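Protocol step 4 of 6: structure prediction from sequence.
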Amino acid sequence: MNTWSHSAFDDRYVLRDQVTHEPLRNTQVELRRGDGAVLKLVTDGEGRLPVQKGISMERVQLRVLGTLSGKT
Protein backbone atom coordinates (compact mmCIF):
# COMPACT_ATOMS: atom_id res chain seq x y z
CA MET A 1 0.00 0.00 0.00
CA ASN A 2 1.05 3.57 -0.74
CA THR A 3 4.35 2.38 -2.26
CA TRP A 4 3.25 2.11 -5.88
CA SER A 5 4.32 4.98 -8.11
CA HIS A 6 1.05 4.62 -10.04
CA SER A 7 -2.16 2.92 -9.04
CA ALA A 8 -5.73 3.03 -10.25
CA PHE A 9 -6.92 3.83 -6.74
CA ASP A 10 -5.20 6.85 -5.23
CA ASP A 11 -7.68 8.81 -3.16
CA ARG A 12 -7.14 11.88 -1.05
CA TYR A 13 -9.75 12.42 1.64
CA VAL A 14 -10.87 15.78 3.03
CA LEU A 15 -12.39 15.64 6.51
CA ARG A 16 -15.10 18.14 7.41
CA ASP A 17 -17.07 19.01 10.54
CA GLN A 18 -20.54 17.43 10.42
CA VAL A 19 -22.29 20.65 11.46
CA THR A 20 -20.26 23.51 10.00
CA HIS A 21 -18.73 21.62 7.05
CA GLU A 22 -15.44 23.40 7.79
CA PRO A 23 -12.29 21.34 7.11
CA LEU A 24 -10.89 19.51 10.14
CA ARG A 25 -7.44 21.10 10.09
CA ASN A 26 -4.46 19.53 11.86
CA THR A 27 -6.58 16.69 13.16
CA GLN A 28 -5.27 13.30 14.25
CA VAL A 29 -7.05 10.40 12.56
CA GLU A 30 -6.87 6.63 12.67
CA LEU A 31 -7.40 5.09 9.22
CA ARG A 32 -8.14 1.37 9.01
CA ARG A 33 -7.60 -0.03 5.52
CA GLY A 34 -9.37 -3.01 3.99
CA ASP A 35 -6.30 -5.21 4.47
CA GLY A 36 -6.39 -4.54 8.23
CA ALA A 37 -3.54 -2.02 8.30
CA VAL A 38 -4.08 0.77 10.83
CA LEU A 39 -2.45 4.12 10.13
CA LYS A 40 -2.19 7.14 12.44
CA LEU A 41 -2.39 10.22 10.22
CA VAL A 42 -2.79 13.99 10.59
CA THR A 43 -4.79 16.22 8.26
CA ASP A 44 -3.09 19.24 6.74
CA GLY A 45 -4.16 22.89 6.95
CA GLU A 46 -7.00 22.20 4.51
CA GLY A 47 -8.31 19.09 6.28
CA ARG A 48 -6.74 16.70 3.77
CA LEU A 49 -5.22 13.34 4.63
CA PRO A 50 -2.15 12.04 2.79
CA VAL A 51 -2.99 10.24 -0.47
CA GLN A 52 -3.90 6.59 0.05
CA LYS A 53 -2.96 4.26 -2.82
CA GLY A 54 -3.96 0.71 -3.60
CA ILE A 55 -4.00 -1.74 -6.48
CA SER A 56 -7.66 -2.52 -5.89
CA MET A 57 -10.69 -0.81 -4.40
CA GLU A 58 -11.00 -1.29 -0.65
CA ARG A 59 -13.19 -0.18 2.21
CA VAL A 60 -11.63 2.18 4.74
CA GLN A 61 -12.76 3.34 8.17
CA LEU A 62 -11.80 6.67 9.71
CA ARG A 63 -11.84 7.58 13.37
CA VAL A 64 -11.15 11.15 14.46
CA LEU A 65 -8.83 11.14 17.47
CA GLY A 66 -8.66 14.90 18.07
CA THR A 67 -6.86 18.03 16.98
CA LEU A 68 -3.17 18.62 17.60
CA SER A 69 -4.20 21.36 20.04
CA GLY A 70 -6.19 18.79 22.03
CA LYS A 71 -9.61 20.12 21.05
CA THR A 72 -12.12 17.94 19.15
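Step 5 (inspection) to follow. The mean pLDDT is 84.
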